[in-house]
């Protein structure tokens, strides 16, 4: 069976590392991005130049129509999806609750929660034995913030990732009998561009000494866990969480 993966938010960071690794493992990869077409195309080019198959897929995962259209393009160009990595996510400037607005909270939730639900919905429609599919696997990218709460920084983001954890648990039980496994990774302090979005590009280096392992993580280390959860090596694993947070 042709292995086809969709990685949301795949133009940078963990998503990029995951798309490249899955391509090395033989997946045809849909590289989803929101706005940075050049970055997404560079991921596609790297995969294609190495002999793999990949396409760039622009879509705002918070927009239902765009998500539906993206899955249709993926099926048309690469074939029916067998692996979904829900990775796209946003956060805003570090602040306390006094400065949070409804607009900011809703923006975070629409991408980090609603977007994950929509992508899961479309993947299940294709993968599920109940719909004539061949099964598949989903990995949701949560965050150690779901456990720790991100006080004084972005509790709205942390709360959105708590919702991702609950989605993982509930969906894993809902589709287990229909050939779909659903698991989750919780990265901690990883060297990605996302910290700049929170206003502190050097955040990992500031906090790494507080971790038992005394270092930040690399996107490739998270990608390895995602790829394992998608693989047949994890064929009896569903509803599980892998902590990638250096021991904290």
From TrEMBL:
Q: Does the record carry Oxidoreductase as a key word? A: yes
What InterPro entries is this protein classified in? KR_dom (IPR057326), NAD(P)-bd_dom_sf (IPR036291), Sc_DH/Rdtase_CS (IPR020904), SDR_fam (IPR002347)
Q: Which UniProt keywords apply?
A: Oxidoreductase
Q: Record's CDD domains? A: SDR_c (cd05233)
Q: Which Pfam families match?
A: adh_short_C2
> Does Oxidoreductase appear among the keywords?
yes
Recorded GO MF terms: oxidoreductase activity, acting on CH-OH group of donors
Task: Please state what the protein is called.
Answer: SDR family oxidoreductase
Q: Tell me which species this is from.
A: Ewingella americana
């Amino acid at each position: 069976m042709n292995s086809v993966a969709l990685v949301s938010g795949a133009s940078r960071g963990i998503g990029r590392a995951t798309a490249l690794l899955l391509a090395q493992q033989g997946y045809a990869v849909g590289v989803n991005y929101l706005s940075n077409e050049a970055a997404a195309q560079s991921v596609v080019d790297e995969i294609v130049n190495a002999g793999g198959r990949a396409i760039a897929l622009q879509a705002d995962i918070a927009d239902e129509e765009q998500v539906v259209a993206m899955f249709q393009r993926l099926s048309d160009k690469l074939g029916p999806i067998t692996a979904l990595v829900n990775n796209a996510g946003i956060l805003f400037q570090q602040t306390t609750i006094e400065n949070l607005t409804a607009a900011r909270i809703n923006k975070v939730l629409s991408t980090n929660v609603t977007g994950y639900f929509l992508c899961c919905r479309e993947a299940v429609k294709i993968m599920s034995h109940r719909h004539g599919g061949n099964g598949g696997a989903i990995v949701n990218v949560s965050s150690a913030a779901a456990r720790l709460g991100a006080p004084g920084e972005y509790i709205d983001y942390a709360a959105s990732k708590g919702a991702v954890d609950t989605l993982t648990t509930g969906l894993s039980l809902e589709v287990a009998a229909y050939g779909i496994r659903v698991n989750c990774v919780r990265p901690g302090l990883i060297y990605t561009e996302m910290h700049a979005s929170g206003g502190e590009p050097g955040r990992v280096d500031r906090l790494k000494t507080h971790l038992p392992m005394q270092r930040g993580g690399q996107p490739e280390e998270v990608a390895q866990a995602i790829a394992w959860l998608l693989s047949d090596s994890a064929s009896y694993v569903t509803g599980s969480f892998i902590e990638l947070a250096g021991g904290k």
